[in-house]
UniProtKB/TrEMBL annotation:
Biased composition (Low complexity): 501-512
Residues that span the membrane, as ranges: 246-270
Chain residue ranges for the region called Disordered: 489-512
Provenance organism: Acidithiobacillus ferrooxidans (Thiobacillus ferrooxidans)
Pfam families: AAA_22 (PF13401)
Name of the protein in its database record: Transposase
Keywords of this entry: Membrane, Transmembrane, Transmembrane helix
Length: 544
């Protein structure tokens, strides 16, 4: 590691720049692989722990990270991006003073394009696009952990250098909200009051952007990362265009590198305005497709498969490999969640049915069928290779809630270790906890169904039917089943219209027609078919 640092210090373009000199030295591929890896805590002896404790051990896989070629490439690209961005912002040069002066001019004139461009920008940018769950955000987070976020400089200028800042794109694509989020994040990091000074709702968007660019320049922001960029599709009017133009200005005019991270749904946006910045950068953009069933995928599966907390160690057969890929379609997050839930199901079956705790292809398919309904449209779209459909189903975050619900339900039904000196049969404890879980599910579902307009007694019947047909399912799964039942029954439930016709018939029966033959109502009701009401009245002499 010392040799790498010495080589870095000998580079003339990095040697005399304090903003670069205090950064960690560039890493070799091997060093980056070791630094980024985040294996779960694992001890083979934990396989002998009670079932409820092993369920907690399995949940460690949520933080599991195994660096792959794409992550190592991203780390190298990030290291180059941040150092190149600082080349034109050396605080020991007169160019830096001119750059700060230009920033003050922009603030005074409230115009991002004011002050000229006397100093050439060396900043770059790129976009990281890929299917949700492929590891974009987590991979970037692991890379950011390799760099300090704040560095204090006493000379040649006293300032706090902000090496990186990561923001989530506002849900409505509002440039103003992005600026407010920027000021708040800087305040949290530096202890400043920028949010109170420049983040007031009374300020215009243009004014906020000018101040945001100036603050980023004052604190030598190394790189700005904007995650979930696909959210700006929902921006009203020209909001999305204004936000992208502002980010392009940060790169080309202010000299601050920008990284955009998003799902496939962001591709149409980034193929427009932001491509100008990408052309200027030379670093291009990264599009992470789902993993193919190739050596890299097999390497990851083999590494992951070793973290088993079942009593028996299940072999990784070719059939199991094939099912893992079919049910996850090369999405790492889906694969890990499937592996977690399969282990949990194997342990449950071992406790309740005294069967071997084994993970096989059949169990994996069963778990995927029961607990991955939320992302089934996306998985099916991937199987078909339908890119338009994939862009519509570009968010698998609801599955994380489903996984937590599955673990919560399982823990509520798993028996713990019996207290010494007492005899507590496993079956009775499990029955009591299962009954308690059912009461909890009903307590959740009934108010929800009543809010949707169902009568309380009907809601209870539907919940009871769903529980009887699908025992052990979570509240979330039961909601989907009940919704499907209601949708299938909708045509046979005409609601208000029959009630209205029945009421109308009742009123007609209560008010019979008069028996007087000269009554106008009697004449009209007795007219022959095809005769108009006027002709009937004329024939009876009621009108002239």
């Amino acid at each position: 590691m010392t040799t790498t640092a010495d080589e870095d210090l000998t580079l003339p373009e990095y040697r005399d720049n304090p903003f670069i000199a205090k950064l960690p030295p560039p890493m070799s591929t091997h060093d980056a692989l070791l630094a980024m890896a985040a294996p779960p805590i694992f001890n083979a002896a934990e396989r002998d722990y009670p079932a409820h404790l092993r369920a907690h051990c399995i949940s460690r896989l949520k933080g599991y990270f195994e660096p792959l070629e794409t992550h190592l490439s991203l780390e190298a690209k990030f290291g180059l991006l941040i150092r190149q961005g600082y080349l034109c912002r050396n605080p020991t040069t007169a160019d830096y003073t001119r750059r700060v002066r230009e920033g003050a001019t922009r603030v005074f004139e409230k115009d991002l394009m004011a002050g000229g461009r006397s100093v050439r920008s060396t900043a770059s940018s790129f976009a990281l696009i890929g299917c949700s769950g492929i590891g974009k955000s987590y991979g970037m987070a692991r890379i950011l952990e390799l760099y300090p976020q704040k560095i204090h400089h006493a000379e040649p200028r006293s300032l706090d250098q902000v090496v990186w800042l990561k923001l989530d794109s506002p849900h409505k694509g509002s440039p103003k909200q992005l600026c407010i989020s920027f000021f708040r994040s800087m305040d949290d990091l530096l202890g400043t009051r920028y949010s109170a000074q420049f983040g007031s709702s009374r300020r215009s968007v243009d004014e906020m952007m000018v101040h945001m660019a100036h603050v980023a320049n004052l604190h030598a922001l190394g790189v700005l990362i904007v995650d979930e960029i696909q959210h700006i599709r929902e921006a009203s009017g020209t909001g999305a265009e204004a936000l992208l133009n502002f980010l392009v200005t940060l790169v080309n005019t202010i000299g601050i590198p920008v990284i955009l991270i998003g799902t496939m749904g962001a591709l149409p946006l980034l193929q427009g305005d932001f491509r100008q910045a990408r052309r200027a950068s030379g670093l291009g953009s990264l599009v992470w497709e789902r993993m193919e069933n190739e050596p890299t995928w097999n390497y990851f599966v083999e590494r992951m498969w070793g973290y088993q907390w079942t009593r028996e160690i299940s072999p990784l057969t070719d059939e199991v490999r094939q099912v893992l890929y079919e049910e996850s379609q090369g999405i790492v997050d889906v694969l890990i969640n499937l592996f977690m839930m399969a282990q949990l199901r194997a342990i449950q079956l071992g406790v309740l049915n005294r069967r071997p705790e084994r993970i096989d292809a059949g169990l994996l398919r069963q778990v995927a069928s029961e607990h991955m309904r939320l992302i089934a449209p996306m998985i099916n779209a991937l199987k078909r290779g339908d890119r338009e459909a994939i862009a519509q189903y570009d968010d698998i975050r609801p599955m994380q809630d489903q996984v937590l619900q599955v673990f919560s339900d399982a823990l509520s039904c798993m028996p713990g270790q019996p207290v010494l000196g007492t005899r507590s049969p496993v079956a009775s404890a499990t029955t009591e906890k299962a009954a308690s879980a059912n009461r909890d599910v009903r307590g959740i579902l009934l108010p929800v169904l009543e809010q949707l307009g169902l009568a309380g007694d009907i809601a209870e019947i539907l919940v009871a039917e769903a529980e009887a047909e699908h025992p052990g399912l979570s509240a979330l799964d039961l909601v989907g089943i009940i919704t499907a039942k209601l949708r299938d029954r909708a045509p046979a439930n005409p609601s208000k219209k029959p009630r209205k016709s029945t009421t109308s018939a009742t009123k007609t029966a209560k008010t019979p027609l008069p028996v007087d033959a000269q009554d106008l109502r009697t004449i009209i009701s007795a007219k022959k078919e095809g005769v108009s009401a006027y002709d009937a009245l004329l024939a009876a002499g009621a009108v002239k």
